[in-house]
Each structure stands twice: as C-alpha cells, then as structure tokens.
Design a protein that fits this description.
alpha/beta, Rossmann fold, Glucose Oxidase, domain 1, 6-stranded mixed beta sheet, 16 strands, 27% helix, globular
C-alpha cells in the first residue's frame, strides 16, 4: 500500500478567497477533500498515489463470472449471462462456479483458484462476482494481486465481496460496488441494470437522490470507499484494513440486529475510522431486527448518533445495497457530494 500524508484542519473564513493561499502552500495537483460549511471550511488534504482506472469495456471484451462465497446454480446465473451477452461481451464462467461444498461454491481452494485465474488473465476485462453470503474472507489472505496490478480489470460485487473491493483499493485499483450476477435472477431494477452497463463502458454518471430527514447538509469532494458495514468491521486490524481519512465512506448492511449496528459503529469510531471523513453516505439497512426489549433506535438513528459530533455531511437512504434498486458506485474514484434539504447529488 502506498504511503500517504493527511492534513486536516478547519479554516474560518472572512471571504471566499481565504482557502486558496492555504491550499497553495501544499502545492497543486493534489488529492483534496473539502467540506464546505457556513463561515468555515473543514479541509482534508490527502496526498497519495492516484488509483489506477481499469480499461473500460467494449463489445467483444471478456467478462468472467466467479464466486468467492456462496454456491449458485446455472439457472441463477443465466439472466446475468444473457444480459452481458446482449451488451456484446464474451462471458465465461469459472471452472468451479457450479461446484458445491456445503453452502459454498466449492471448497476454499476451488473458489480461490477461480478468482486467481480470473485476476491473472490478461484478456479478462471484468470479474462479476456470482453472489455474496459468506466465504470471501476465508480466502482473502491467499490471493496474489501482483498480476491484477499489472493488468487491472473491473471487480464488480458487494456485500461479502466487500473484502475483495477493499483489497483492490489497497492495491491502488478502482473497483465497482454493485449488483452481483444472482441479482439479475432475483430481480434488479432496469435503472440499476442500465447504470451497470454505463459504468463498465466508461460513461459519466451522477445520481440525484432524495433528501432524508436525518441528513446533515454540506458539500464535499473526496475518494469514495466503503461497502458492507459488517465486513468493514471485520477487516479492522487485519492485513486488509483500510484508510478513511479525507475520504467519503459508504456503508450498507442486511439482516442485523440494531445493537449489532450500534456495536459496529462504535468500533469504527473507537478505531478512528469516522473522525476525519470527508462525508458519510448510508445506503440501505435492510431487514433489520430488534430484541423483545426494544433497542430504542433504528439503524439510521444509531448511525447518526455515532457521528453527531463531527461536522462533515451525512446522508441516508442512498439507493445501494440489498434491494432491487442497487446503483453501482465506483470505489477509489474522486467524487463530489452535495447534501441539501431539497435533494442530494453524487457526481463521479
């Protein structure tokens, strides 16, 4: 992982030109995340190696479908294969994609073999993960990313695959948090489906989405990172840990108890992952559970309480996560975020 330097501070403004000389002290052409406030600016200046953008896809390019987690069937994969073929891509499934080992798509060695082969294949332009569930963490430390770094390709997945997205970012390669192959079978909105094609083929995208009553307004720019809250929580203190300072963090989750959400958010806070963000984007918190004695807050309220002392923008209900509408996000990309009372916008 490349070394980076973070400079964080708040500048109280008398006029709009105050910040320019301050930033010029650190030189031009740096990665800068700036959160605008009334009468003051929270500045996060992050200097690091720019991430690689894998080549965008064109007709005839090779896309491989593999699973590092739960098992799948040919019927479940068929809609994704059909859609990718309609877009003009050449689709190949991993050798062990349809193997089964209890709940997994083959044993650890088989799942690792499929992923490693796809990473090392210089003709492959994108890897679409078949589904999440559980299993990716079991093989994470055995993956060799040296070939991937030399011949980067798009990784597309979310949920349990968050560990591989973070690994990609730690190797300085952009990746896509978005629907996996099985969601074409389960039911994926036409809008999200079109966005996947647009992102893979390099079209500029931006998302306008509704304001939420719990939003904390503001504007910022920064590198977008994140993923499934439970997986991010499990990565802390490991070889796949991640840096958040000066970045826009996205989180989502599924099938958790409210006290679990609270515990994970407190752990992120205590580990220093939340105090120097440029912004926090919260996607779906789907199918949450409570105990017989109510916890007293829902997932969004828990998250807001955890970050209430910080000054950066926070927005809730971004359309990404375990739902039919699941818009792709380019992780590692410098983006701009506007959170207002009238609506929000995320631009790539």
């Amino acid at each position: 992982m490349s070394q980076s330097l973070l400079i964080v501070g708040e500048i109280f403004l008398n006029n709009s030109n105050t910040i320019i000389p301050v930033l010029n002290r650190f030189g031009k052409n740096k990665k800068v995340a700036v959160c605008y406030r009334i009468k003051k600016i929270h500045v996060s200046l992050l200097i690091n190696t720019p991430l690689l953008t894998p080549p965008f896809l064109k007709k005839g390019d090779l896309v491989k479908i593999i699973s590092t987690a739960r098992r799948v069937t040919p019927d479940e994969m068929e809609p994704a294969i059909e859609k990718l073929t309609q877009w003009g891509f050449n689709v190949v499934c991993g050798k062990f994609l349809y193997e089964t080992c209890h709940q997994y798509a083959g044993n650890d060695e088989q799942r690792l073999s499929d992923f490693q082969e796809a990473l090392d294949d210089t003709n492959c332009r994108a890897i679409l993960f078949a589904r999440g569930g559980y299993g990716s963490l079991r093989i994470a430390d055995k993956i060799d990313f040296s070939g991937y770094k030399k011949s980067p390709k798009w990784l597309l997945g979310f949920s349990d695959v968050t560990v591989h997205l973070i690994q990609s970012l730690n190797h300085q390669v952009e990746c896509i948090h978005g629907p996996m192959a099985i969601y074409f079978y389960k039911g994926l909105s036409s809008e999200s489906t079109e966005y996947i094609m647009n992102v893979l083929m390099g079209e500029n995208i931006h998302y306008n989405f509704p304001a939420h009553a719990l939003d904390k307004t503001g504007e910022c720019k920064g590198e977008l990172i994140g993923g499934n809250l439970s997986i991010l929580h499990n990565l802390l203190g490991t070889s796949t840990d991640f840096k958040t300072a000066g970045k826009i963090l996205f989180i989502e989750d599924l099938d958790e108890y409210y006290y679990h959400i609270d515990r994970m958010m407190i752990h992120l806070k205590r580990s220093g992952k939340l105090d120097s963000l440029a912004a926090l984007i919260v996607g779906y918190m789907s199918q949450m559970h409570d105990n017989p004695v109510p916890f007293g807050k829902n997932a969004y309220q828990i998250i807001l309480e955890t970050v209430s002392e910080y000054n950066y923008p926070v927005t809730f209900g971004f359309p990404a996560g375990h739902e039919e509408v699941n818009h792709p996000l380019i992780f590692g990309r410098n983006v701009s975020l506007e959170v207002t009372r009238n609506g929000n916008c995320l631009k790539f």
